[in-house]
Amino acid sequence: MIDENRPDGMPAEQVLAEIRELRALDRPTHGGRLFAYVYDPAVPGLDALATAAYAESAHVNGLDPTAFPSLLAMENTLVAAAARLLGGGPGTSAPDVVGSVTSGGTESLILAVKTARDARPDIAAPRIVVPASAHAAFAKAAHYLRVELDTVPVDPSTLRPAVAGVAAALRPETVLVACSAPSYAHGVVDPVEQIAEVAAAAGVRCHVDACFGGWTLPYLRRLGLPVPPFDLGVPGVTSISVDLHKYAYAPKGVSVLLHRDPQLRAPQYFAYADWPGYTMINPVISSTRSGGPIAAAYATVRHLGDDGYLELTRRTWAAVCTLTEAVRGADGLRLVAEPESTVVCFTATETGPDLFVLVDELAARGWHTQPQLSYAGLPPSVHLTVTAAVAPRAAEFGPDLADAVAAARAAGPVALPPELRALAGTLAPEGLTGDVVAGLAAGLGLGPGGGLPERMALVNTLLDAAPPALRERLLVEFVSLLQRPAW
């Protein structure tokens, strides 16, 4: 039990011991058995290098590049590296590309929307058009920035939006069209060329969300995979984002947002001089920014280099192929999409096991996957984000998957109590009172400061039975129960 009441402070080693004790509750961030949230290249010495670089610049403030030019130089180097990888720079069709380093993909996407909105002050009620498969950060951007979100359905077979559907969604108030390379949920690349052409014809900016795949798709193409055009080499693509803390394998959180030219980027900046303090000028959402993540990303990218990333991508694709064959060979499972990037996504057949029970069974065997709920006719699925660290362990996955499928079949599907199923189907989000949520949480093994139950199948089944608006409210209330002060 951690003692929070130490007004006299604590010895450093004791503080670190507490952190280690808490970290023991987490999913493993290394070892190739976690298929979401973290990206591990399994490169010896890389963690130590990134940590040392982080420490060198942790107390440097990115607020003022004239005071701390080291960060400006590192940011410019990272932007140039991303631009070269994504079709920009001297000798390309985007020679004047510029960019900014952000804290992550969500900030990059919010800024892409903000920039497009502010470029059109003549539009009183701006809108953006995105595929239904676009990352939820676009919805967050629309919510924060008071921009209307128009979503285009994806084909249930290809999992891509129809170009005609994107064209039909455009309005005079549309300021931005977005597409994914690839989509996070299923790992498929949208028809970027055709969508960008439609956007350009309408005089609308087109952003490519390559946060997830921008650092692997170019290398997969070099390895011989048929990667379609998706970057700044595509006419009509006005901006693109890529996360360095994903497949560039930098520590959290660093992303890069690129614009085709400085004029397109100009509305991204915020400046304010109408007060007695310093004139504020920010290219990104944050003002004060620690230089630690930027320096760690700089060190990682410089150390691994182009050849290093090509080799890491080769290992990753080999792991993707091994996992894909494991899914194909598993009784009662099928691929949602043929892998074309670093995602393996599968679901159950009509006679297959309960997917949410299967996820728990895989976790019991040390494999931590990401369940995805059903949506608009698409079945629930299991998402595997594959990294280079998975390669040495990939052959172990097939036998464990087969064993987990057998165990899930033996356990049978989760049966929601009738009252819970009725609640999920009929309760309006606004009807969720504190007492209702507390009762639900207790029944599901959730509670104030109590963490999560070891098995999540019942929770996921309840969420899957609820419509999206109720899912959102349930999760907000559940997380609110978990996030309470430790008195």
Automatic annotation (TrEMBL):
<dbReference type="InterPro" id="IPR002129">
    <property type="entry name" value="PyrdxlP-dep_de-COase"/>
</dbReference>
<dbReference type="GO" id="GO:0019752">
    <property type="term" value="P:carboxylic acid metabolic process"/>
</dbReference>
<comment type="similarity">
    <text>Belongs to the group II decarboxylase family. Sphingosine-1-phosphate lyase subfamily.</text>
</comment>
<dbReference type="GO" id="GO:0008483">
    <property type="term" value="F:transaminase activity"/>
</dbReference>
<keyword id="KW-0456">Lyase</keyword>
<keyword id="KW-0032">Aminotransferase</keyword>
<dbReference type="InterPro" id="IPR050477">
    <property type="entry name" value="GrpII_AminoAcid_Decarb"/>
</dbReference>
<keyword id="KW-0808">Transferase</keyword>
<dbReference type="GO" id="GO:0030170">
    <property type="term" value="F:pyridoxal phosphate binding"/>
</dbReference>
<protein>
    <submittedName>
        <fullName>Aspartate aminotransferase family protein</fullName>
    </submittedName>
</protein>
<dbReference type="InterPro" id="IPR015422">
    <property type="entry name" value="PyrdxlP-dep_Trfase_small"/>
</dbReference>
<dbReference type="GO" id="GO:0004058">
    <property type="term" value="F:aromatic-L-amino-acid decarboxylase activity"/>
</dbReference>
<feature type="modified residue" description="N6-(pyridoxal phosphate)lysine">
    <location>
        <position position="246"/>
    </location>
</feature>
<dbReference type="InterPro" id="IPR015424">
    <property type="entry name" value="PyrdxlP-dep_Trfase"/>
</dbReference>
<keyword id="KW-0663">Pyridoxal phosphate</keyword>
<dbReference type="Pfam" id="PF00282">
    <property type="entry name" value="Pyridoxal_deC"/>
</dbReference>
<dbReference type="InterPro" id="IPR015421">
    <property type="entry name" value="PyrdxlP-dep_Trfase_major"/>
</dbReference>
